[in-house]
Amino acid sequence: MLKRYGFLGSLRLLISLLYTKLFYPKARIIRLPFDIRNRHGVLIGKNLTTGFGCRIEAHPPTSGEKVIIFGDNVQINDYVHIAASEKVSIGSNVLIASKVYISDLNHGNYRGSNADSPMIPPNDRALSSRPVVIEDNVWLGENVCVMAGVTIGFGSIIGASSVVSKDIPKYSIAVGSPAKVIKVYDFEKKEWVLI
Fold this sequence. Notes:
This protein is mostly beta strands.
């Protein structure tokens, strides 16, 4: 470990490991610093791994419901920010690169006849939310933003710096802002094919 991380890196890792085993015994390792707000609104599966500087914010209803749910074997890397007031569900075996943002909420409502006026300061607008579902075996690349109301299907890949504002079907590769599907997995050919 000393050769790989050096003395200070190994010491930081050891402190993070002790913190994990004391406060999140089901997790593999929670690297510090780690900020979790309203922990009672978060459900963590087995073997969660986090990078440095992750921020998890649950704004649960008073019923004590879990609004952020991690499946098993989820790995989130450095500086990931996840916020939820209704539901962000992350399946098992999901890999999330650094600086990813996932949220089910907005400051204000921008759909339909009850949309907020631009004359109201954003901080004065009521929070609105729509659930986010990230299914099993998904990989989110560096700097991806996953917006409210989105489902990312099983086994999909979202390319770096993409903004996911609409559902992505399973077995797809999507890139861009807004993210669009560019490839799907062909089970007969056993390869990713352009669409």
